[in-house]
Design a protein that fits this description.
It contains 21 helices and 25 strands. By secondary structure, it is α/β, with parallel strands linked by helices.
Length: 691
């Protein structure tokens, strides 16, 4: 990835162009919907485009699994490839749209992704957009996606944007007025980690602020946060979250009106306003609240990005044809991503399914034939969806009987019917089958962003970790049928299904090819290999208060014990068993032997964890390296994972990052905790090191 300094020519060209603008023209370019300046040959440009897991909101595109599912792959190479495909389709669309004079929203080259906030609480509806609870994994996946989006040529393929800076993870209902309190320790150790990494290592072109305040300052005008960007050498553009600047006066009550809010944001370093406040910049200039130099400086930042994207010159990406959009090769990658993302949490031996014994399969549940559970949020639209039901109809040799069973969350599917109007049909399906695939879960109408369509119950956040009541009644009913149950959960977060099925698969929001991926796994054509990027808890009532941003008691790094842990971070079963041995560490490289001791070819994820041996270190241990591996049955490999210098540091209680003197390194296909060992039936190896 090229550094910002490699684009000095773009900055010079931007400055020369901005020098030709009147101040009124320059101010107009700081809006997300920047108008044309015809006399200078500058076309209109809309900065707002989305591409969280494939190009979004722009008609047809390849719909990949949701970001949290991509994190579950622990495959940064795949994630980089998906970023590149997203950029390819964005360029193809941009080229086509420009040829027809369409410069509307969601049609530009500035992609407002990835979301690298930390998924600290499983109730947060937008947690599905993130790469999970671990700063190291989040940074690794965010770097990979950014590199894929931006490319490594002389021109940015698209411009990625790290969001939302920072200390932002719910509650959604309070986000416009909430003040997130975070210690210097938690800022350095958790909340700012991935942003620093993406700026320093991937040179992410954009950063988006958050809605909330951080320790009293609005995130889109925070002297502390803007100071961090300067400290890290950020050389791109800063954008507000959408209508966040309005919150300064409307909800945070720290300014008197929109003119003051616009001035506060611009003076702090916010270059472009997603929203409407910056229509007041000229009034702020007239009132002496901002300077012309600051307006021009922000404009130079924005046109530098546009120059890096070669919007005013020919470039290598102009010839990307529209026909690459949703092409078979891209869909095949979406299927592979879904296969790697699905996590097998329980299996008493029923999977992979033996089609010589199971002749009839009942596929039951409100998520079985839903395309919404494939999409997640911030999604594109596929020209073809393979639901879980369709995937099993295509991939299972025997008879498939389908029943919806219940509504996703309402107590009936038909308005005129009585409560539980689809339960009898579900019972009939189960009674006439040899086994049941029970498809339950959520979708973005009840788990997502505040303001999304629906958002039942808590502005998109979950009120607890259970399935909706209608689905809980369905589960209890199907259990009584006495048939083997393979439970498939579609959700972007931790769910406690409340019962013990014969097999439990967490499918996330699996993308348009999710049904085929699920069928491949259930039928044994592919061994599951996904790992949890978040801790699955038993009960949300045992968690810290949702509004408490201290990391104490949160995530695997700070949980004091496992009494409330259902499934640990990093956990996931395969159809085989991977044993680790002979761990050595030297000069930043960990070498470990891995052996597939089972009878099934499989992928797995080798994970490295480090425990700093210092009285000042508050963490249990943290992930410091990982590698996805492929092993034939009985195969042994020697794997090497590099750790960077930051892995050997820890944060002191007052927020300083220092290098450690002693540490313990652990290697396994899971965390080095007793619950993971019990659930997988495999152990770990460790080595003590003195630096």
């Amino acid at each position: 990835m090229k550094e910002y300094s490699a684009f000095e020519n773009a900055r010079e060209k931007a400055r020369a162009l901005v020098d030709k603008m009147t101040v009124e023209e320059a101010a107009s370019q700081l809006r997300y919907d920047s108008p044309a300046i015809e006399r200078l040959g500058i076309p209109a440009y809309n900065w707002w485009n989305e591409g969280l897991h494939g190009l979004a909101r722009s008609g047809i595109s390849t719909v990949f699994p949701q970001a949290i599912a991509l994190a579950a792959t622990f495959d940064d190479g795949l994630v980089k490839n998906i970023g590149d495909i997203t950029a390819t389709e964005a360029r193809a669309k941009y080229n086509a749209y420009q040829s027809f004079g369409d410069r509307d929203i969601y049609k530009g080259l500035t992609i407002w992704a990835p979301n690298i906030n930390i998924f600290r609480d499983p109730r947060w509806g937008r947690g599905q957009e993130t790469y999970g609870e671990d700063p190291f994994l989040t940074a690794a996946m965010g770097i990979a996606y950014t590199e894929g989006l931006q490319g490594d040529g002389d021109v940015l393929k698209t411009a990625a944007c790290a969001k939302h800076l920072a200390v932002h993870s719910g509650p959604e209902a309070l986000r416009h007025e909430f003040d997130a309190k975070a210690s210097d320790y938690d800022l350095e150790d958790t909340y700012l980690y991935a942003f620093e990494e993406l700026i320093k290592k991937a040179h992410v072109e954009g950063v988006m602020g958050a809605y909330n305040r951080v320790n009293g300052e609005p995130a889109c005008a925070s002297q502390m946060l803007m100071g961090k960007l300067s400290e890290w050498g950020f050389g791109g553009y800063f954008v507000s979250d959408c209508w966040a600047i309005n919150d300064f006066h409307a909800h945070h009550m720290i300014t008197a009106n929109a003119v003051e809010s616009a001035a506060m944001a611009l003076n702090a370093g916010c270059d472009v306003n997603c929203g409407c406040c910056y229509v007041n910049l000229l009034a702020a200039l007239e009132a002496g609240l901002v300077t012309e130099d600051r307006i021009r400086e922000a404009c130079v930042h924005l046109f530098t990005t546009r120059m890096k994207l070669s919007m005013f010159d020919k470039c290598e990406y102009d010839d990307i044809p529209y026909t690459v959009v949703a092409c078979p090769e891209h869909k095949a990658k979406a299927r592979k991503a879904a296969e790697e993302a699905i996590v097998l949490l329980e299996n008493n031996g029923i999977l992979p399914l033996d089609s010589t014994k199971i002749k009839t399969l009942a596929v039951i549940g409100p998520t079985a034939d839903s395309t919404a559970v494939l999409d997640g949020n911030y999604n594109g639209t596929s020209d073809e969806y393979c639901t879980f039901l369709r995937g099993l109809q295509e991939g299972f040799d025997g008879r498939v009987i389908y029943a919806e069973g219940c509504h996703l969350f309402k107590d009936r599917t038909s308005v005129l019917a009585q409560k539980d109007d689809r339960l009898a049909e579900a019972c009939a399906a189960a009674a006439n089958a040899d086994a049941v695939v029970l498809c339950v879960g959520l979708d973005a109408s009840i788990e997502g962003e505040e303001g999304d369509t629906g958002n039942e119950f808590a502005s998109g956040d979950k009120t607890d970790l259970r399935l909706p009541e209608s689905q809980r009644r369905l589960v209890e009913t199907i259990k009584k049928a006495g048939k083997p149950i393979i439970c498939v959960v579609a959700a972007g977060s931790a769910i406690n299904t409340g019962f013990a099925p014969d097999a439990l698969l967490h499918a996330w929001y699996a993308g348009a090819e999710g049904g085929r991926a699920l069928a491949d796994i259930i039928m044994g054509r592919v061994s599951p290999s996904g790992k949890l990027p978040v801790t699955f808890y038993k009960d949300s009532d045992r968690l810290p208060e949702f509004t408490d941003y201290s990391m104490d008691g949160r995530t695997y790094r700070y949980i004091k014990d496992n009494y409330n842990v259902l499934y640990p971070f990093g956990y996931g079963l395969t159809y085989s068993k991977t044993e680790v041995s002979e761990l050595d560490y030297n000069d930043g490289k960990a070498s470990v032997t891995v052996t597939n001791t089972g009878s099934f070819d499989t992928d797995d994820v080798l994970q490295l964890y480090i425990k700093i041996q210092s009285d000042d270190c508050r963490e249990n241990y943290h992930l410091c390296g990982f590698e996805r591996i492929t092993l034939k049955a009985g195969e042994t490999k020697r794997c090497v994972i590099r750790t960077d210098e930051k892995a050997l540091t820890y944060v002191t209680p007052d927020g300083r990052r220092v290098r450690c003197d002693k540490f313990t390194l652990y290697a396994s296909t899971h965390q080095p905790d007793s619950l993971s060992c019990k659930l997988t039936g495999t152990g770990f190896v460790k080595t003590d090191q003195v630096v």
